TrEMBL record:
Native organism: Streptomyces radicis
PANTHER family named among the record's database cross-references: ALKALINE PHOSPHATASE LIKE PROTEIN, UNDECAPRENYL PHOSPHATE TRANSPORTER A
UniProt keywords, alphabetically: Cell membrane, Membrane, Transmembrane, Transmembrane helix
Keyword Nuclease: no
Spans through the membrane: 43-62, 125-147, 153-175
GO CC terms of this entry: plasma membrane
Name of the protein in question: DedA family protein
Length: 203
């Protein structure tokens, strides 16, 4: 029981912050759930809930320190382009884009900060983030659950989970390379809320 509690705690601590590689740990949790050593519903709840809490924290930090967030995201041409591209599409496509941006490289961090900077409504942002994290947690845990069963052990889940995560990240990286070349949006602390507001004009 103590070991299970430590596993749940470790899942939460490594999932809440962005940019922490824990695909192997999540695969392990899925494999342990398949063997009955962990509760599958609780594993999913801890992973998705922790990720959503992290997204909310990123959004909140962006709202409280939007000037610093803009400065950090504008320090390099690549980040500045990603900020403009993300903000423009967030206002144009709304909730579907909020869901989709989570699966791009660094999407949790850039998506959450951009949503805060352009004053995208917190309720809509958290709804989209919640959908994205539920989908992500489901397939990430399933890889370990079914992989561990197929290869008869946790090491099989570790291999499959890590390999698939690398493939997904690589594909997302390729697809996102042309993204920041799209229309730029004037972003800043004074940007209007996305709920009921006109999309910002492209620069």
């Amino acid at each position: 029981m103590d070991g299970a509690l430590w596993m749940y705690a470790l899942l939460a601590l490594t999932t809440a912050p962005p940019l922490v590689p824990n695909a192997a740990l999540i695969a392990s949790a899925g494999a342990l759930a398949e063997r009955g050593e962990l509760s599958l519903p609780l594993v999913l709840l801890v992973i998705a809930g922790s990720a959503l809490a992290g997204d909310a924290a990123i959004y909140g930090i962006g709202r409280m320190a939007s000037g610093r967030a803009v400065h950090w995201l504008s320090r390099t041409t690549r980040r500045k382009a990603a900020l403009a591209w993300t903000g423009d599409r967030m206002h144009t496509h709304g909730l579907p884009f909020v869901v989709g941006v989570r699966f791009l490289p660094s999407g949790r961090l850039i998506g959450g900060l951009t949503a805060a900077i352009v004053r995208y409504g917190s309720g809509r942002y958290l709804l989209g983030a919640g959908i994205a994290e539920t989908v992500w947690a489901s397939y990430s845990v399933a890889l370990g659950y079914w992989g561990g069963s197929a290869l008869d052990g946790m090491w099989g889940a570790l291999v499959i989970g890590t390999a698939v995560s690398l493939v997904v990240a690589a594909v997302a990286q390729v697809l996102s390379r042309s993204g920041p070349q799209g229309p730029r949006t004037a972003l800043g602390p004074g940007a209007r809320d996305a709920q009921g507001a006109e999309p910002p004009a492209a620069a």
